[in-house]
């Protein structure tokens, strides 16, 4: 194995989530040999400052890694700008990067899988992204497979791919429409990725991930996916910047090594795509959303 990729962790104002993220990461088999770089965003207001201070006090005490570096932002960047700036600097410096946020619990072999995949496909120009989280458990999914779509819950990339990241949502949307790719980008209309991009353009969300997803898709990259869940999100409790509480993600962490063998041929796995498309249709269709809204209302939750 080549030199291990640096882990970049983005934190803000959730000390308990951050603690759980770190405690799980330390249990990874390669943690003690890995560099951890933490970007702590500054508070956007006085309400958040106390929680940000608690996070910063905690991260100063972190041990268990080869090296820990902390970047305390002096002004509030916001989640998207913090991630874009941090990933760009670190991936340009080291050539590769593993990215986490402060609400992600990793399995013990997460770092092993990520580093193995980064090594295996470092010279494969058609592979631009590695993702180790599945929202659901399905035994029909291969252990490892390719899709054209990226995930933002525990991911990795190389400098060669990240150079193609375009933060301009307007340009990305125009290109998707010009090339008649919106239907494919939306998993054959199973999920509204294009709608998410349009909302980002209008300032209704500030998602870096939808822009990375569109950049990756338009450049013809494939993403290497783990068919087992090696990351869980504990932030779907309304505590985060872009987190809601409508959909519960309950797949169990996979606690065994996941072997990475280089594929003879790089292409999207049709079976895996169909399984994911079915999940999106079942979970995010208008009917599914309406049913969840009715259930929340009956419980007295009148939030949007």
Topology:
Layout: E1 7-11, H1 15-26, E2 35-40, H2 46-59, E3 67-72, H3 79-94, E4 96-101, E5 104-106, H4 110-120, E6 127-131, E7 144-147, E8 155-158, H5 159-162, H6 169-178, H7 182-185, H8 193-201, H9 208-218, E9 222-226, E10 231-233, H10 270-284, H11 286-298
Parallel strand pairs: 1-2, 1-4, 2-3, 6-9
Antiparallel strand pairs: 4-8, 5-10, 6-8, 7-9
Describe this structure in words.
By secondary structure, the chain is an alpha/beta fold. The chain has one domain (7-164, 219-298): Spore Coat Polysaccharide Biosynthesis Protein SpsA, Chain A, CATH 3.90.550. The chain has eleven helices and ten strands. The strands form two sheets. It has an eight-stranded mixed β-sheet with strand order 3-2-1-4-8-6-9-7, with helices on both faces. Strands 5-10 form a two-stranded antiparallel sheet. α2 (46-59) links the parallel β2 (35-40) and β3 (67-72). α1 (15-26) packs parallel to α2 (46-59), α6 (169-178) crosses α8 (193-201) and α6 (169-178) runs parallel beside α9 (208-218). The chain is globular. 40% of the residues are buried. Residues 242-247 and 290-299 have low confidence and may be disordered.
């Amino acid at each position: 194995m080549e030199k291990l990729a640096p882990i970049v962790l983005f934190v803000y104002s959730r000390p308990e989530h951050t603690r759980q993220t770190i405690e799980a990461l330390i249990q990874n088999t390669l943690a003690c040999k890995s560099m951890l770089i933490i970007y702590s965003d500054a508070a956007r207001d006085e309400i958040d400052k106390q929680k940000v201070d608690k996070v910063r006090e905690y991260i100063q005490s972190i041990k268990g890694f080869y090296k820990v570096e902390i970047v305390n932002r002096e002004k509030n960047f916001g989640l998207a700008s913090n991630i874009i700036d941090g990933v760009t600097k670190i991936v340009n410096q080291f050539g590769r990067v593993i990215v986490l946020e402060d609400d992600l619990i990793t399995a013990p072999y997460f770092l092993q899988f990520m580093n193995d995949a980064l090594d295996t496909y470092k010279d494969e120009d058609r592979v631009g992204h590695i993702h180790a989280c599945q929202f659901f458990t399905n035994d029909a999914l291969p252990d490892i497979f390719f899709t054209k779509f990226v995930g933002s819950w525990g991911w990795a990339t190389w400098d060669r791919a990240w150079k193609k990241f375009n933060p301009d949502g307007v340009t990305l949307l125009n290109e998707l429409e010009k090339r008649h790719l919106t239907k494919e980008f939306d998993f054959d209309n199973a999920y509204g990725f294009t709608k998410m991009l349009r909302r980002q353009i209008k300032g209704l969300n500030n998602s870096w991930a939808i822009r990375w997803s569109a950049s990756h898709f338009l450049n013809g990259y494939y993403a290497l996916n783990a068919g087992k869940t090696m990351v869980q999100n504990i932030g779907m409790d309304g505590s985060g910047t872009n987190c809601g509480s409508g959909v519960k993600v309950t797949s169990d962490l996979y606690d065994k090594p996941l072997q990475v063998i280089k594929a003879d041929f790089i292409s999207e796995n049709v079976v895996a795509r169909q399984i994911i498309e079915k999940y999106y249709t079942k979970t995010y269709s208008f009917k599914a959303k309406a049913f969840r809204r009715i259930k929340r209302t009956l419980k007295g939750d009148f939030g949007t």
